[in-house]
Amino acid sequence: MNPISADLDALALQIKDWGREFGFAHIGISPASNDAHAQRLREWLAKQYHGDMTYMAEREGLRGEPAELHSGTIRVISARMDYLPDAENMDAVLGNPNKAYISRYALGRDYHKLIRKRLSQLAEKISAVAGGHHRAFVDSAPVLERGFAEQAGLGWIGKNSMLINSKAGSWFFLGEIYTDLPLPLDPPQEAGHCGSCRACLDDCPTGAIVAPYQVDARRCISYLTIELKTSIPEELRPLMGNRVFGCDDCQLVCPWNKFAQATAEADFSPRHQLDNSDLIELFLWDEETFLKNTEGSAIRRIGYQRWLRNLAVGIGNASASSAAISALKQQRPSAESMALEHIDWAIGQLQGRSRATISKANSSDV
């Protein structure tokens, strides 16, 4: 065996050992090219499924050309970190219309900061031992992360467009290191393990999974509550239920998630009881409280007005009560025009249901 190849094989193994020391559950290495996924992205963009995420189209070319983003890149090191908390009450919260459901990934510390730091430390170790040029990414640049992770053997792309691992499900984050070292490649997992299952398509609250492996972001609750900066389409609001920041339904029903691993990262544990809070309680936060309680959290990125917008929709879908209507009216002075529109919509929804209930009760008495 070529001594250089032997050294690179040993380095690849060492990188995986270092990755485990930094808390990553799986490290894989792929080539820095992925024409199939780049073509799928172009087709997805052509259908306008990206909605208002104009940056997806503006930087589309860089996703398929890693060397354009980081000169000299010939390999992508993909890393997986599990985030599911040990104790879970997801179904109970979703089943209670007066509770606020927040996507599990956002309950603890912002993963971008934690994983980027760990990947940067891993890149520094590689550089110290083998030289080369490396750059870490965590959902912060135009990277085909799921495509590269699939090529590196971390899983396969499921019908919900999530990466699924046969031993860990899909409750995990991904990060990458672009490198100019010619490291040995890992074999991809065999694709197609979703079989005839349609659980994610059939259970998507808004019908955003329009076909196997195709998600129309314009209907996706994660897009509507996080990425969308304007009003949520009125016809979709009732379908959102109590999901106020992201949505996990397609993961909750995925059979492969029975193998999901609980996270070992304390920073991913829920903060401020956000895994089990009432809609009204969160809605009545003033902006100062919002900023304080979302410090270091991915939730802060949407800002206070979108926080009010999302919670107003949740309250509008919740049980009609005088307390809910009072809370909505109490926050009207704090709301800017976009949030105010959703607050008034919610008041109308609750008042309409209250009138319907009274009318039904009166009819029963006749």
Overview of this structure, please?
- The strands form four sheets. Strands 1-2-7-4 form a four-stranded antiparallel β-sheet, with helices on both faces.
- The protein has 16 helices and eleven strands.
- It has helices at 3-21, 35-46, 54-58, 60-64, 66-69, 90-94, 111-130, 145-151, 199-203, 221-227, 249-252, 279-283, 287-293, 303-316, 322-331, 337-365; strands at residues 26-31, 75-82, 99-102, 134-137, 156-157, 163-164, 172-179, 209-211, 214-215, 243-245, 277-278.
- With 366 residues, the protein is an alpha+beta fold.
- It starts with a helix and ends with a helix.
- The protein is elongated and about 75 Å long.
- A hairpin with a 2-residue loop joins strand 8 (209-211) and strand 9.
- The chain has two domains: 1-269, no CATH class; 276-358, no CATH class.
- The longest helix is centred in the last third of the chain and has 29 residues, at 337-365.
Query: Spans of 5+ residues with little confidence (pLDDT < 50)?
Result: none
Distance between the termini: 92 Å
State the shape.
elongated
Write down the overall mean pLDDT. Answer: 93
What class do helices, strands and sheet pairing give?
A: alpha+beta
Order of helices and strands: HEHHHHEHEHEHEEEHEEHEHEHHHHH
Catalytic activity: epoxyqueuosine(34) in tRNA + AH2 = queuosine(34) in tRNA + A + H2O
Binding site for [4Fe-4S] cluster 1: 194, 197, 200, 254
Function: Catalyzes the conversion of epoxyqueuosine (oQ) to queuosine (Q), which is a hypermodified base found in the wobble positions of tRNA(Asp), tRNA(Asn), tRNA(His) and tRNA(Tyr).
GO biological process, one term: tRNA queuosine(34) biosynthetic process
